[in-house]
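Researcher: Next entry in the queue.
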Amino acid sequence: MALLNFRKRETPSERVVTPEMEAFLQGYSIEVMPRTAEKVENFRDLLPEGTRVYIAHIEGTPIEDMVATAKRLAADGYPVMPHFPARIIKDQVVLEDWIARYQGEAGVNQALLLAGGVDKPHGQYDSSMQLMESGAFDRAGFKRLHVAGHPEGNKDIDPDGSMKNVEDALQWKQKFSERTDAEMALATQFAFDADPIIKWADDLRAAGITLPVHIGIAGPAKLQTLIKFAIACGVGPSLKVLQKRAMDVSKLLLPYEPTDVLTKLAAHKAANPDFNIEHVHFFPLGGIKTNATWAIENGGASTRPANTQG
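Model: Structure for this entry, 310 residues:
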């Protein structure tokens, strides 16, 4: 008799794609970095036609590498949304130079604006709101601006553990969206528990925040990898989901997959069509190919890669 009864993983052929999940994964986006993108031989073998690809700009990454990655993805037919982290942008000259490079070489017309994960600003900017107020994106004719959302708060913004500063910033961004013609949305930090996500999204609407939400979800990865990233990124209450999983020996050695959280969110969206989460945004913490493969296996026609679409 076996001492441990490990649950057998389903094979792709055994998985049933539900209409709710297929609809919820329609139009998902994914995040890459230059060094992770280099490992992908052909994005069209992995991602659906028209997938929005965010390019994360980590401190120390040369702008030339960022632009080269954007150019490659755009050439493959994918709309590119580079990060503009305020705290690593020295001044207006650098900001406008980056915008011009992205536009001139990769045809970029959308951006994710965020403060950036560095303690000390490199120059005159320390928040996404300052980037928005600069007018640089408007002058360049950018069509879409996304900003960060934090379903579980952010201790860098609210050291006391509250949501006050985060909520005040969202009210400011909401008002900005009402006085500009840029299409805007909230791209959120990843979380692992559907219930707090649903409550947060409902609370936003109750507070008059009508920006659509693109919910951040961690893609399949080793449990240890996810816990490391969750702690580093300040993920709060839903970290308990991972900690509980780590205590279950039958799941400890299996990679985490976002099936449970997305199944619950997809069902909620199907039952509440006006729910303000519009799309899923994947953080491929276990690798781009691993994440894309999971989406293909669980999303049906909505996640079929470009090279297999007839």
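Model: The chain is about 40% helix and 15% strand.
Researcher: Noted, moving on.
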